[in-house]
Design brief:
Elements: H1 3-11, E1 16-17, H2 18-31, E2 39-44, H3 52-62, E3 65-67, H4 78-87, E4 97-107, E5 116-117, E6 126-127, H5 130-141, H6 155-164, H7 168-173, H8 177-199, E7 207-217, E8 225-235, E9 238-241
Parallel strand pairs: 2-3, 2-4, 4-7
Antiparallel strand pairs: 1-8, 5-6, 7-8, 8-9
Helix pairs in contact: 2-3
The chain binds zinc ion (ZN).
Zinc ion is lined by residues 46, 48, 72, 105, 128-131.
Length: 245
């Protein structure tokens, strides 16, 4: 087994290849009457170019997508973005249907190192997620006492850091801080999404599908993996979990 697979097995034993995730979820959602004609899709994943393939595959399946996320995959578009998103639904149908795909990401390189990636056309290694790992290095450098400063010209990173700042001790003390910060960012994004949706009158009575997970980038241009997390639909007010693994 390669070093990559060893690390993947150890930390994300249930991860599936991204195309399997998209195929399986699409099949289940189609059966529940979500399709590209009647559903608008919004995604909150990091802006990193290594997620381009996933975004493209999602667009091929679900049509044009609304970008809800910023660095780290956090839901930076907030209430205003979600209001615009809501108003762009395919309105020839009696029920409004929305699909949300949210995810954070982490790379594993060929040596099995977490957070490290050799990008196409680059000689050296770099970080993924650079935003989350940059935030982690500040938490470590300040020994868990880091205080983010507002910076209009670095607003997306400020949003990441201020979203995670209350968890910095828990993150740096965990056995694998790179994974801990990736998990926490996903948890915060899912909570933000659900809180905004629950308080937002425009989403009342809409059918909602939520897919979430951690994207894991593999070395050598292999497909990404996804460690699938919370996935469900809410139709006519009734929540139903999707089972993928
Ligand atoms: Zn990123």
């Amino acid at each position: 087994m390669s070093n990559f697979h060893e690390t993947l097995e150890k930390h994300f034993p249930k991860a599936v290849v991204d195309v399997v995730f998209l195929g399986e979820t699409t099949k289940q959602l189609n059966e529940l009457n979500f399709n590209r004609r009647n559903t608008l899709t919004g995604i909150s994943i990091c802006q990193d170019e290594i997620l381009t393939d996933f975004r493209t595959m999602t667009e091929l399946i679900w049509g044009n997508i609304f970008m809800l996320g910023g660095l780290g995959g956090l839901l930076i578009s907030g209430r205003t973005g979600l209001t615009a998103f809501n108003h762009h639904d395919p309105d020839t149908f009696s029920t409004k249907r929305f699909l949300f795909i949210i995810g954070t990401h982490i790379a594993i390189d060929s040596e099995g190192r977490l957070g490290s990636i050799k990008r196409v056309n680059q000689r050296g290694m770099s970080n993924a997620c650079g935003s989350l790992l940059g935030c982690l290095s500040k938490f470590k450098r300040f020994n868990g006492n880091y205080k983010p400063m507002f910076d209009r010209q670095d607003i997306a990173q400020y949003f990441v850091e201020s979203s995670l700042v209350n968890y910095q001790l828990e993150i740096i003390r965990s056995s694998h801080p790179e994974i801990a910060i990736t998990e926490k960012a996903l948890e915060i994004t899912l909570k933000d999404l659900e809180e905004i949706l629950s308080k937002h009158n425009d989403f009342r009575g809409c059918d909602i599908a939520v897919l979430s997970g951690i994207f894991i980038h593999a070395p050598n241009d292999y497909h990404d993996f996804i460690d699938v997390r919370t996935c469900y639909t809410t139709r006519n007010g009734i929540k139903k979990d999707l089972k993928l693994v």
